[in-house]
Each structure stands twice: as C-alpha cells, then as structure tokens.
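Internal tracking record. Fields below are filled automatically when a chain is submitted to the structure queue. Please do not edit lines marked as system-generated. If the sequence contains nonstandard residues, flag them in the REMARKS field before resubmitting.
Queue: standard
Priority: normal
Entity type: single polypeptide chain
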Amino acid sequence: MTAVLATESLTKQYRMGEVLVNALDGVDFSVQRGEFVAIMGPSGSGKSTLLHLLGGLDYPSAGEVYLNGEPLSQLSDDQITRLRRRKVGFIFQFYNLLPTLTAVENVGLPLMIDGQSLHAKRPLIDELLGLVGLAGRSDHRPDQLSGGQQQRVAIARAFVNQPEIVLADEPTGNLDSRSGAAILELLRRTCRELNATIVMVTHDPRAASYADRVVFLQDGKIGQTLRNGNDGIPVARIAEMMTSLEL
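SYSTEM-GENERATED OUTPUT FOLLOWS
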C-alpha cells in the first residue's frame, strides 16, 4: 500500500505564560491508502493538534507533514488553501452545514468555493447522497433533517472533491448511540466502496473499534497501536488502553 499521509518528527509547541508546552513531541505517523485510522488519547494528549496539522489548518513548530509525498512546509498559504479544498475532506462534530442551503447545495459547497459548476457536478452529488442514504432528501435544508441525517450530508460533502484523505473530528460526538453507529458503519463502508482514506479523532472506544488501526497519543507522543484482526478490535481492549493512559 502507498502512504497517502505521513509525518516526520512532527512537533508543535505553545507558550502559556512562561511555560513552553509540547502539544506534539516528535511524532512519526503514516496512513496507507484505503486505511481507516482512529486516533485516541486523554484530554490534552495532542489529538486535535495532530488532526489540524495533518489538514494544513495549523503550522508545526518543527518536523514535516507529507501528503502523497509532498511536504506541506514547501507550500505557500494560497497553495495550502487550494490543497485543503481539493485533496482533504473534513467531517466535524457539529456538521457545519449552512442553514439556508439544501442538502445538494451543502454537499456541493466545496465545489462552488473552488469555482466549479454545481450543475455539472450534480450527478456526482446525487451519487454521494444516495451512498449516504439521503437520495430522497436532496432538497431539504438542515432544519428539516435529523442530527444523523445532517452528519450524512457532511460526510457526502467531505467526499465531493474526491479527496486524497478525509479527516474526521469526533464525527459521532453529537449523536445518540444508534445514529452514531450508523454513521460509523457508513464511514467503514465508504472505505471499502470508494477506497477512501480516513483519519478519525475520537474519545469513544466503540467508535474506534470500527477502524483498521487505533493509534494512542499520550503527552504529545505516539504510544501503542491496536490493529483490526479478523474479529475486529475489541471495544473492551480499547477501553482498557484508554483507562491505562488516563491513570
């Protein structure tokens, strides 16, 4: 398999008064094409910081992020912005849909921002809405959709530019357990059907159990990794790991 995303000695430091905080401390990490990776760790372990750096939303203090072998540090701000629009999809906990737009328009928003024709891309948008189970809701606005349906729209939007990688930040954190499980099954299925590559930050062992690999962060460093075997990653094993990190 080919590494779609990789980091090398990735470091991020913040200054809090006179104290220098290492949010990330020399992280080496890679994601293979078609892989679904979950990142877990205690509060303050660097999970969200890592996700922001992977998506070009923030700059590292040292080290490098590579997307398809291209170092992000060599790109200008405008090039980083174009890269985010065209090669990276984002799924957020609170959906981030525009309330005045229909499902079709929300899914197609990244295309419109990129100057592409919504009409020309309508077959792709309809295909994605069908994939996430919303073929009959294309003209509905967010206030006409449930939370789980809104997150399905957000997932379709993340894939509309056929990105190299999708970054998901607690994608089920605002959903009930039933809706959350349906969203995770959907993400799992998109990996298979679209050969998608997904990196997901989560605090939920049940959510992480859907991944091919669970990577644990502690104090800004990568610790142990659990891999999905024939029977999946046991939720109890993930929960045990999290408990040991939080002690």
